[in-house]
Records
---
Amino acid sequence: MTKTTNNLDSCEAFAQLTALQPVGNLATLLTPQRVATAQVAMDDGMWFNYAAKAVDEPILQALQQLADEQQVVSQYRQLLDGAVMNGSEQRMVLHHLTRGQLGADVVHGGTSLRDFYQQQLDRIAAFCVQVHNGEVRGGSGERFTRVCQIGIGGSDLGPRAMYLALAHGQRSQKQLKLEASFISNVDPDDAGQVLAELPLSRTLFILVSKSGTTQETLTNESLVREALRSQELDPARHMVAVTSETSPLAQSKGFLTSFYMDDFVGGRFSSTSAVGAAVLMLAFGETVVKEFLAGAHQQDCLALNPNVDENPALLDALIGVYERNVLGYPATAVLPYSQALSRFPAHLQQLDMESNGKSVNRQGQAVRYATGPVVFGEAGTNGQHSFYQLLHQGTDRIPLQFIGFLREQGGSDRVIQGSTSQQKLNANLMAQIVAFAKGRRHKEANKVFVGQRPSSLIYAAQLTPRVLGSLLAHFENKVMFQGFLWNINSFDQEGVQLGKMLTQQVLGGRVEDDALDAYCRLFQS
Ligand SMILES: O=P(O)(O)OC[C@H]1O[C@H](O)[C@H](O)[C@@H](O)[C@@H]1O
């Protein structure tokens, strides 16, 4: 029997890990020397620093053994080579291939899928040139100056977070080609508000849906088409589609052109496929997107290293499993000290919680241990004035994932009252790490900080396109490794289906459940 199907609680290394003495005092562990050395290079001057994590040498060694016993890097290699890692849907998992080849040539239906993904990127690049130079124009003959993506879940969160992460920097360097907006929610106020602000005759819409069947997206598509028609604009000259080749959308007419992904790229892992590339290339051009993809590919390469002290995503994943399954922490907070990453926590919520929010293993049996944590977050320092109270003094201990940069993106930083805004931002970040770890004694009970709140820090000189790609892939790979460690399928998402089915009953007037029927009556008035 192969080891790759082992549950976490049947691993010898997990038993050893559980038997180890936890770190007694994070405050004393956090020495200056540890701050300077407890880190793993992520390349491009980027680091994963785990100095303020409650893991000492024996724990790290046990984590290495756990990674070895669960053969997580060899599972990653199998995934890269095109093994069916999404067993419940009988699918390969190929998002890494959208940004480079690391394993065997993966061929499906006679086509090399690396070639397929690259061709789609090339087609998008060629189309973007035509839009940018005015060869492709809107129905009234005007040049496109805006782009608006219609999509939800993985067809919104990642691309939107990536766009927002780069827009200010690109705008300040006068490199922003088209400003982007997004419509996702089926709430009519979402489309209503975005459409009211857009110059429709100059707007190109990208309809993004992998399945081509998502209710919210198709509803919003209709609203957009109606809005265009109401201004006597031909919707077919204002809309492109991004979808999987097998979806109903792939057959439909009424688009300037269509770009494709396939069933082997999960929605939440699709930012580096045509799903993210279309809006990012329209907004920033091909060079920026190539840099972004190169950063992601670089992390994918690092993730092949079996040594945890040289593989940041694996180390991050293992520490997360230790905190979840040995220390029993229920959640994790993502705290980027960068306004550009304001939607990054929202993307990670889907990435992590939709992937690892599972209770059965890959053999379909219930697991008897905790899997994915609750993930939430907010850009610093905004979070400090909101939920940090609970993080500092609440009854749950919640591990923290800080992200920070030496320099801002926009070049507008200036000294105000003795320090620049970036210096203030980073002073807050550093202060928080130490406050969380070390706490403070006080004679008044409500002013005591017990500390012992672990955190890690990813930092780099600046949030460039390449660094952004690295960050994205780091978390994708962390989530993947955690799924392997927990022996769960991180690549399906059945948890969304029940609600969808009941929604259809409500809309079709065929409600079977009496409580749901009662709720329907509440909303009738
Ligand atoms: O891209 P689409 O097929 O429209 O799917 C959009 C989203 O909806 C689904 O309900 C899934 O939970 C998500 O994983 C997916 O990203």
Note: The chain has a mean pLDDT of 96.
---
Amino acid sequence: MSTYVIGDLHGCHAEFVSLLEQLSFNPANDALWLVGDLVNRGPGSLACLQEVQALGSAARCVLGNHDFHLLVAARGGGRLKKNDTLSDILATPQREQLLDWLQSQPLAIYENNTLMTHAGVLPTWRADQAVSFSQEVQAALLSERAGEFLTQLFGNQPDQFRDDLEGVDRLRCLVNVFTRMRFIDANGRLDFAAKEGLESAPEGFAPWFQYPRADALQLLFGHWAALEGCTPNAKIKVEALDTGCVWGGSLTALNLESGERTSVPSCQPRH
Ligand SMILES: Nc1ncnc2c1ncn2[C@@H]1O[C@H](COP(=O)(O)OP(=O)(O)OP(=O)(O)OP(=O)(O)OC[C@H]2O[C@@H](n3cnc4c(N)ncnc43)[C@H](O)[C@@H]2O)[C@@H](O)[C@H]1O
């Protein structure tokens, strides 16, 4: 039995199928963890959602910012953007069932001293706190007022988590840490402007994984394609899994037991 962690699919269905074949993935014996952003930008968002859902309990995933973008577009009054590739999901007769499934996914998965989130966690958050914060957001997503929550979700403030934050401000801040974080300052304040490589760090900010932690937790994340799967000068045990498939890079799986990485090349044009 093997556990494979796969980076951002972003609708790259052909590459997903090819990677599972290369791994000889067997849902009866193996487990699949997905770091989120199953959909958008690539051509096969609907097929990716269907494929992951069809794997049943063999696949576990966390929500990414583009998964939230889909939920907000479908159920929170949001608008699609010019380059979004989500129309096939919004038009399919399976739409409500697929969205219900997506909306019920967590933002953090923790097992065997390993924590998976889409973008990362703040260095001050213990694993049990991250799981509890994920459960807070999940409770809002599963509540009767989920539509109202999705309507108010998007925004960049508050950009610094404090435990006394309440209501939708607290939830927005938690979602932004879990799904959008890249650079933070020494006080844990998030920057939302810089999206490229480490050279794009704003003054006084550093990648979240360059701050030390008090524990020896292993962190798994995707989201940051410009890292090309690397975490230079990391102060923690961490694996970056987004190798930019949708940007013409590759789709990568990490075998959690052996530490071995397997990649398949992208079918998308290089950006
Ligand atoms: N609470 C909330 N508030 C607001 N919005 C919310 C939200 N929750 C969810 N959202 C959603 O999140 C979006 C904003 O998220 P952001 O995280 O701010 O930005 P993004 O550009 O959408 O990031 P993406 O996830 O695509 O990252 P990637 O590294 O692939 O790509 C980033 C860049 O990297 C570049 N890149 C890729 N590969 C590279 C490489 N090898 N080298 C250099 N650059 C590379 C690409 O060109 C690209 O420009 C909003 O549009 C909204 O829909």
Note: The chain has a mean pLDDT of 98.
